Amino acid sequence: MSLYNAVQDWMETTWVHHVVLDYAWSWPTLETLHFLGLCTLIGSLLVMDLRLIGFQNLIPLRAVHALMPVAIISFGINLISGLGFVIAVPRMYTGNWSFWAKMICVALAGLNFLIYYTMIEPKLLKAGPTAPTPFSAKAIGVSSLVLWFSVLSFGRLLPYLGVGGG
Amino acid sequence: MADWVRSSALGYPLMITLHAIGMGVMVGFALILDARLLGRFAEIPYTALHRFLGLAWIGFGINFLSGSCLFTTQAAEYVVHTIFMVKMALVVLGGITAAILQNIVAQESAGWAPNVAPTKVQVIAWLSIIFWVTAIVCGRLTAYI
Questions:
Q1: Which of left, alpha, beta for A131 (phi over 0: left; psi -120 to 50: alpha)?
Q2: B12: nearest CA partner in chain A
Q3: Taking the CB of residue B96, how many other CB atoms lie within 10 A of it?
Q4: Angle CA(A90)–CA(A93)–CA(B140) in degrees, nearest 5?
Q5: Is the dihedral angle over the CA atoms B66, B69, B74, B79 positive or is it negative?
Q6: What is the mean pLDDT of residues B11-32?
Q7: What does DSSP assign to residue A131?
Q8: In chain A, which residue's Cα lies nearest the Cα of B144?
Q9: Torsion angles phi and psi, residue A150, rounded to 5
């Protein structure tokens, strides 16, 4: 038995699996949390990434940086609610290429953030608060927005792609 | 248009994806603006958020258009669907509070304490949060009740 199947079989034995499937309110609750989380994630990212791209340069970069915890907590909410979905019906997701496309975009967005955090941000915070942003920062901002809107799209299209009927 | 959205393989998924994007943009910005007016992220100038809210209206517009297309696919069922009509009322209220806040920030924020807006503005910000969050809850519940 492969690890891939073993993990999914194990998921189906957990309390999360049973709670989500046994209580009618649990799926809509998870969905609502996931949607609210994505709103605050997109909202905070739009302000931060547009600032990186150079929109509203008059705002000090540090001020916009204060939104980072919102993005991280929002991602956390979506990670946890997302796990709720996957543990409930693992094979509905792992058999859907849209789910994998979404996860790849999340991973790339995480990588994008790491590059920003370790290589770009230290330089930006040392420069003047309203200095024009270098090309690397603009590129990070653009790729962040492209990747997260892709995550949103692949997620929304889950019922329609990769299930042979979309 | 209703037929195309209802029956084409592309139309319905395209419309609901646009609807999700517009929701993220509009509600996302609105919630950040509301948080700012309540005193969070105090280093961001009020006027800067006012400009970002202009972008939020693009999200609202995307949702108005995509929502209209989605609505036409089952208009007769939607108008008698209580939770959907509640959502519509909340979206209208959310839009109105966003417009009011945009106006107030443009006209009066120069005279505010730099950290937090006056109490009456905070009340409107809280209402905005309640309207948008409840609208999203109702939107999700439309599929269930």
A1: beta
A2: A160
A3: 14
A4: 100
A5: positive
A6: 95
A7: P
A8: A28
A9: -70, -40
User: In chain B, which residues have their Cβ closer than 8 Å to the Cβ of A43?
Assistant: 24-25, 27-32
pLDDT band at residue A61, thresholds of 50, 70 and 90?
A: confident
Residues of chain A above pLDDT 90, percent = 80
SS3 B120: helix
Q: Do A153 and B20 touch (CB under 8 A)?
A: yes
Does B32 sit within 8 Å of A47, measured CB to CB? yes
The per-residue pLDDT for range B115-137, each reduced to its tens digit, is 889 999 999 999 999 999 999 99
3-class state of residue A67 by DSSP: coil
Please report the ipTM that was assigned to this predicted complex: 0.91
Q: How far apart are CA A126 and CA A68, in angstroms?
A: 18
Is there a contact between B55 and A46 if contact means CB atoms under 8 Å apart?
yes
Domain that holds residue B119: 2-141
Question: If you count residue pairs, one on A and one on B, with CB atoms under 8 Å apart, how many are there?
Answer: 95
Q: Which residue has the tokens 């943009």?
A: B25
Number of CB atoms found within 10 A of residue A82's CB: 21
**CA A156 distance to own-chain centroid:** 13
Residues 6 or more apart whose CB falls under 8 angstroms from that of B69 comprise B1, B2, B5, B11, B15
What is the Cα–Cα distance from A21 to B62, expressed in whole angstroms?
A: 34
Q: What is the pTM of this model?
A: 0.92
Cα(A164)–Cα(A96) distance, integer angstroms:
9
Distance from C-alpha of A151 to C-alpha of A148, rounded to nearest angstrom = 5
Distance of CA A96 to the CA centre of its chain: 18
Domain map (residue ranges) of chain A? 3-156
